Amino acid sequence: MKQRVKRRLLACAVILLILAFTAALGMGMTRALTGIRRSDAEQILHFYSEDIQFQLQGRLNEADALAQMALIMDRSSTAWFENAAAPLLSQEQVRYVCLIEGDTITSALPRETFGYQTGQSLRDLSYIFTLSKVVKELVIEGPVVLEGASDDRPVFLFLQPFVKDNAYLGEVALALDSEYVLGQLSLQYLSDQGYDYELWRVNPQNGGKDVIAVSGSNIDFSNAVKTSFNLPTEWNISIQPTDGWISPANRAVIISSCFAAALLMLGMACAMYQSLTRKWILKKVSTVDIQTGLYNLPGFTAALDGWLSDDSSGPVYLFYFVYESYNQVSQLIGPAEESIFLKSIPERLNAFIQSPFIAGRLGDGNFAIAVCEDMSLNQQEDFAKGVTLELLLRTRLNGKKLFLTTHYQYRHCSAGRNQAEKEITALVHSYYEHRSSESPAHRLTEKCRQLIAGQNNVTFDEYTDLEMMELSKTFNQYRKQVEQLAYFDPVFNVGNRSKYQRDANMLISYDKKRPFSLFCVDICAFSQYNQLFSADIGDRILHEVVQRLSRLFGNYLYRINGDVFLGITLSGEDETSFATKLQTLLSSPVTAGHATFTLRVRTAVCLYPANGPSPEILLDRIQSAMRYAKESGQKIMFYNDELDEIIRSEADIITRLEAAIKEETLEVWYQPIMHLATGSFSTAEVLVRLPDGNGGFFSAGQAVALAERSGMVDQLGNYVLSRAGRFINAQGKALGLKNIHVNLSVQQLLVENISDHLLSIIRASGADNGQITLELTESVLIQSIEHASSTLEALRQAGIQIALDDFGVGYSSLNYLFNLPVDVIKIDRSLTQQICTSHKQRALLNSIVEMAEVNALTVVAEGVETLEEQREVAASGVQYIQGYYYARPMCEEALTKFLSQKTRASDN
C-alpha cells in the first residue's frame, strides 16, 4: 500500500516537474516577446510624452505672451491687457483670461461672465493659482469647470506667472476648451498605432488619481508602460497594446512549443521510471499495527529516525498519549467494540492533523505521534488537547455513559541518526515521572484554579473511578452555574455583553466567511416609564420586549445596557424586511399592570463581515449607527458607507483637533461685544476655529461636541482659556477690552477640583481673574446645578464672573434667576431675531431685563444683525449687544486692527 502511494507520489512529482519546466519555457518565451513589445511601446511613449509637453508648454500656452507683456507694460491700468486678450477671446477655444497682480485679480475676461472676480484675493480662487505663485513657473490644471461660467463645459487652465529677479509679481490665467486641448494632443495617434492609452495626473491636494483622457472604459492599465512629466504637478501617460502584450498568434506559437516540449519530457520520464522500477526491491517488514493500521513500535521508530536524520525536515515534536485503565475498559466493552474504536483512530487523526505527521501504536492504550511543524509551547499544548478530544473513547457500562480520555506528554526532538529510540524512551519516562507526581485530586484542583483565573474552556475529566467521576460531574454542574451568572442578565435571563462577545467570537472562529446580521433595539424615552410609574412597571415592559425579541433571535438575544438590546440572526433574510418586522413586532401595545403602553423603538443594523471583522468593532459601529439614528430621528439606521464616511470624518476632525492643540495651531477667534452705555467694545467672546484643510473651517459646535465625546474637551478648554488669558493680558488694556468671555463645557465643570485647575491656567496666562467670564449654557447649568454650585461659587469668590448662555431657550422660568449662581445672562438669538415682528417677544425681553435688574445681573443680547433689531433690543434696557450688526467673529490679528481703528476714531 505504502509503495503504491510512493509510486503515485513520484509520478505526481515527475508530472509537476514537467509542468514546471513547460511553464518556465512558456514564461520565458512570453517574457521575451513581451520585452520586445514593451521596448517598442516605451520608445513610442518617450517621443509622445515629449510632444505632449511641447504642445502644452509651448504651442498651446497663449498665457506666456501675456505674462511677458505684463512684465514690461504699465500695470497702473489694465486696458493694455484687455486689448491684448481680445484676439484670444475671439477664438472659440478660449473661454477665460485673467490677470492677477500680486495677490489680487485686476482683470477677468469676458467681463460679462467673470467680471465679478475683479478685486478678489488669490486666496478666494482654487489652490492651483497659489501653486503657480509658489513654484514661479507654468502650471497646467484640467479638465476643470470654471466657477461662475455660464455652462459646465470643462477647460484646461494655463497659469503663467511673471517674475522679476526671482520675485513673484503676478500671473496670467488662460482657460482653453478641454476638447480642443485634447484634440491638439493627438491621442488618436496612439489608438491608430494599436495602443490603449490613459492620460492622468496626481492630485496635489490628496494624492489621488485624476484621469484626463482614456481610450476606453473598464481598461486595466496596471501592466501598461508609463512615463511621467511635471507641469509642475505630476502628469502621467500609460499605454499598452489593444490586443495585449502577447498577441493571439504569438500565444498560439508559445502553447504549441510548450506542448511539444512536455510530450518529449513525458516520454523520457516514462522510460526512466520503467528502468527504476526494475531495480526496486520490496522488503516485507512487519512495521504496521494490524488492529489500527498505524506504525507499531519498530515501524514508528524507523519512520521517526528518517525524519530526524534529514536536516531539511524542520523541527519535530513528539507526543505520547496514554489511556489509563485501558485494559480494564477494553475487557468490559468487548473485542468487537474495541476493534471498531481502534480502526477509527487513523481516520480521526488524518481529519484533525493538517501538518506532516507519523503515528504509531506502541502498546495497549499507548500511542505516539510525531509532527513536523514549528510550534510554540502554547501551540504544543493546544495540539495535545485537540488530539485528546479526537481519541476520546465513548461507551456505556451498566447503562451509564463512560468517557475515557488520554493523558499526554510532549517534547521537542533533537536531530541526528539513530536518535528516535532515545527520544521515545525519554518521553515515556518523562510521562510516567509526571503522572506519578500528579493525583486525580491534584488535577481537579488545577482545573478549579484555571476557572478562577478566568479560563472559559475548562472541562472536568471523566474518570473510571466512580467516586472521582461523581466529583467531576459535580464540578461541571457548578461550572455551568457560574457561567450562567457570568454570561446572562440575572433579571431577564437573556445574554449580556460578555455573552455577545463570546457567541460572536465563536460564530466568526467557526466560519469567518459566514455572514450574520446584528440588530440593536433601543426603546425611546424609556426612563419616563420608571419615573412616571415605577421600576416594577419598567421591568414588566422590558420582560414583554424580551419575550417578543426572543421569537426572532432565540438564544442570540442580549441586553447590553438598560433598555438597549442586541440580537444576532443567521437567517439570511433581507435586513430591511427583518428590521421592518422587528418594528412591527414591538409596535403592538404592551400591558404592564393595569396600564397599556405603545412603545417607540429605534433599530440599528450592522452586518458581518461587511461592516467589521470582530465583535468589538461591530458593537462599536452599531452603537454609532444608533447614535446617529437618535440624532436624525430615524426609526431604522443601517451602518453603511455614508455613515462610515461620517465616522471617518469625525475621526479626522478629532485627529486635526488633537494635532492643532498639540502644535498650538488651533485658531482662537473673537467676537466683540458692544457696551451701549459707553458705545465701545469693552468685552469679546472667544470662539474656536478648526481649519478643515480646504480653506474653510469645521463647525465649532461639531468640533466641541466631538471633543466632549472623545474625552478631549479638557485639553481644548485649557488651550482656549490659556490663549484668551494671554491675549487679554497682553493687549486688553491697549484695545479697551476689560473682560473676555470663554465657554466652559459641562464635562469640565464636573471634574474634581476644576476650580483650582482653571484658576491656575488663568494665573499662568498672566490675566487677572476679573478679566475672565466663564460662559455655560442654560440647560447644562440647570441640569448640573447641584454638582456645579460649589465649583461656581469658588470661581466667583476668586473674582471670575459666570455667564448664563442661550438664556430664553425654554428650560427655566424668570423666577429661577434668584437661585442661579451667575453674574451675566446672554439672551439667545431665537428671542432677538423675532423682536421686530412679535409683540410677545418684545414683552418677554423687557421682562427678562427688569428681572435681571432686580437681581443685579448684566444682560447681553446675542444675534443682533440688523439696525431694526438693534434699536428694539437697545430700547429694552440691555447693557450689551453682540451680533453681526456690530462685528463678526475675527482672528486675533483682525480683532486688534478692528479695535485699534475704533479707538482712534473715538479719540478723533
Automatic annotation (TrEMBL):
For molecular function, the Gene Ontology terms on record are: cyclic-guanylate-specific phosphodiesterase activity
The residue range of the signal peptide is none
Task: Kindly give the Pfam families that the UniProt entry links to this protein.
Answer: EAL, GGDEF
Extract the SUPFAM superfamilies matched here: EAL domain-like (SSF141868), Nucleotide cyclase (SSF55073)
- Output the InterPro entries linked to this UniProt entry: Cyclic-di-GMP_PDE-like (IPR050706), EAL_dom (IPR001633), EAL_sf (IPR035919), GGDEF_dom (IPR000160), Nucleotide_cyclase (IPR029787), Rev_trsase/Diguanyl_cyclase (IPR043128)
Give start and end of each GGDEF domain. Answer: 514-642
Every copy of the EAL domain together lies at: 650-903
| Classification via PROSITE patterns | EAL, GGDEF
- This protein is called what? Diguanylate cyclase (GGDEF) domain-containing protein
